[in-house]
Amino acid sequence: METQNFKIASAKSNIDWTGRKVTGAHNGTISVKEGSLTLNNGQLTGGRFTIDTTSINILDITDPATNDQFAGHLASEDFFNSKQYPEAIFVITTSVPKGNGSYHINGDLTIKDLTHPVAFDAQIENAGDAITASGKIVIDRTKYGMKFRSGNFFKDLGDTLIYNEFELQVTITANAVAETALA
C-alpha cells in the first residue's frame, strides 16, 4: 500500500464562515494555521488541521468601528474565547470514498477544549504532488459552549435570536511531503 503525506499550504487554504440570525446573516473568513492529509493508494484516509481562532474576519460589515466591535465579540467568551483558546482542531476519524473524488468524512472537531463528532461530504482533487479538498461543515455552536442569544437557552429573544448552527466552507490545498530515504 502506497502512503502519501501532504502538508497543508496555509496561504492557499481558507475557511469561509456564515452565521445566521432571525434578521439576516453575517459572513467572513478564518485561517487554517497548519495541518496534513494522508492518502493510501490515492484515497484519502486521514488528516487533521488547526484553525486559528484569532484570525476571524467579518466581510459583510463595512463600517470599521462596527466591524471591530463584532470581531471582538466573536473573539470573546460569548463565542470562541480566542485569547484562552487560540486554536480549534479538526481530526479525520474515517473517510469513505463515494466515487469521482467524493468522500463522506467523519471527524472530531475541538473548539474551546470541547470535542464533538462532525460529518460532511468533501470533494478531493488529486494532482499527484498536490491535492485540494473542499467541503461544507455545519456546526451546532451550543455544543461548544457558545450559547449567546440561542433559543435553546434564552426565551423571548424575538428578532435578536442567533441560530445555533453555523457553516464553514473549507478549502484546503496540500502539497506532497518528500519522502526521506532511510539510512
User: What percentage of the residues does DSSP assign to strands (E)?
Assistant: over 45%
Helical element count? 1
* CATH class group: Mainly Beta
Can you tell me the residue ranges where pLDDT is under 50 for at least 5 consecutive residues?
Answer: 149-154, 157-161
Specify the helix fraction band.
Answer: under 10%
**What name does CATH use for the topology?**
Lipocalin
Structural class: mainly beta
Mean pLDDT across the residues is 85
What is the assigned CATH homologous superfamily? Lipid/polyisoprenoid-binding, YceI-like
Radius of gyration: 18 Å
- Write down the overall geometry: elongated
By CATH, the architecture is named Beta Barrel
Provide a quick synopsis of the model.
The protein has 183 residues and is mostly beta strands. Helix content is 7%, strand content 60%. Strands 1, 2, 3, 4, 5, 6, 7, 8 and 9 form a nine-stranded antiparallel β-sheet that branches.
Keywords:
mainly beta, TTHA0802/YceI-like_sf, Polyisoprenoid-binding protein YceI, 183 residues, Lipid/polyisoprenoid-bd_YceI, single chain, Lipocalin, nine-stranded antiparallel β-sheet, elongated, 9 strands
Structure characterization notes:
The protein has one helix spanning about 65-75; strands spanning about 5-10, 15-20, 25-40, 45-60, 85-100, 100-110, 115-125, 130-140, 160-175. Strands 1, 2, 3, 4, 5, 6, 7, 8 and 9 form a 9-stranded antiparallel beta sheet that branches. About 25% of the residues are buried. It is elongated, with a radius of gyration of 18 Å. The protein has about 180 residues and is mainly beta. It has 1 helix and 9 strands; from the N terminus they run ββββαβββββ. The protein has a single domain (about 5-175), classed as Lipid/polyisoprenoid-binding, YceI-like (Lipocalin, Beta Barrel), CATH 2.40.128.
